């Protein structure tokens, strides 16, 4: 099942076979620990998130197994992402003032800590449910321009759904962040295990608390338009070994 995620492009996922040792090896991509799970054929595989900034070409996975350290090469292909231009009424959501910038920097550190977390317990599944049913209004990886100024690429999927739509956990996990952020608005993070983390932004209300265990299909909050949003929608992103990757891969909606 894990091999179905293999989309080795910037913003994608590489699934790398690691053999069938009695105990799982440990794998690292760059400085970050990578997920290792047993696939349906009984083989251990590394499920590696590839950051959008990763160049195409040969990359290496460091592996520590029963036979000692090894370095496995894999290829990253190319993918072109389109541009998106967004007009915001509040210019401060493009150029924050110094106080707002300090707030954002504090919030950013908290989010990076949540993304970087690695819990030994593996996810109950690597194939996720959609958190909401609705039209995809913005895809992952878009080069984004706010009021004509380029900012970071789009790090998730946007679902255009009405305010108040229930948001459901796509898999079992532990809630690590419930907060109201400057750009993201009301936000939830869920740790699904072994570096698989999902984030939900612009909510109108929360239905969970930090530290709470959630089950697949459980309502965690409701769609809103808080933070930097032009209207009600859910921004959903998926992070794997601290790399933001295309959530469409995990719901079988990836577009090459």
Descriptive report:
GO terms for molecular function: metalloendopeptidase activity. It comes from Pollutimonas thiosulfatoxidans. This is Peptidase. The strands form 3 sheets. Strands 8, 11, 12, 13, 14, 15, 16, 17, 18 and 19 form a 10-stranded antiparallel β-sheet that branches. Strands 1-4-3-2-5-6 form a 6-stranded antiparallel β-sheet, with no helix packed on it. The chain has a 3-stranded mixed β-sheet with strand order 7-9-10, with no helix packed on it. Strand 18 and strand 19 form a beta hairpin. It is globular. The protein contains 1 helix and 19 strands. It is mostly beta strands and about 260 residues long. The protein has 2 domains: about 80 residues, Immunoglobulin-like (Sandwich), CATH 2.60.40; about 170 residues, Glucose Permease (Domain IIA).
Write the topology of this structure.
Elements (H helix, E strand, L loop, with lengths): L12 E7 L6 E4 L2 E7 L5 E6 L7 E9 L2 E9 L6 E4 L11 H19 L18 E4 L4 E4 L2 E3 L5 E4 L5 E3 L4 E9 L3 E9 L2 E11 L6 E2 L4 E5 L10 E7 L2 E3 L11
Parallel strand pairs: 7-9
Antiparallel strand pairs: 1-4, 2-3, 2-5, 3-4, 5-6, 8-11, 9-10, 11-18, 12-17, 13-14, 13-16, 14-15, 15-17, 15-18, 18-19
Low-confidence segments: none
Give the CATH class of the largest domain.
Mainly Beta
Q: Give the structural class.
A: mainly beta
- CATH topology label of the largest domain: Glucose Permease (Domain IIA)
The largest β sheet comes out as:
10 strands, antiparallel
Mean pLDDT: 91
How many angstroms does the end-to-end distance come to?
19 Å
Q: Roughly how much helix do the residues carry, as a percent range?
A: under 10%
Number of strands: 19
How many domains, in number, for the residues?
2
Oligomeric state of the chains in view: single chain
Any idea what the CATH superfamily of the largest domain is called? Glucose Permease (Domain IIA)
Which shape, going by the Cα principal axes?
A: globular
Rg for CA atoms: 18 Å
DSSP helical segment count: 1
The ordered H/E elements are EEEEEEEHEEEEEEEEEEEE
Strand content: 35-45%
CATH architecture of the largest domain: Distorted Sandwich
Organism: Pollutimonas thiosulfatoxidans
GO molecular function: metalloendopeptidase activity
Domain M23ase beta-sheet core: 153-247
Domain Peptidase family M23 N-terminal: 6-79
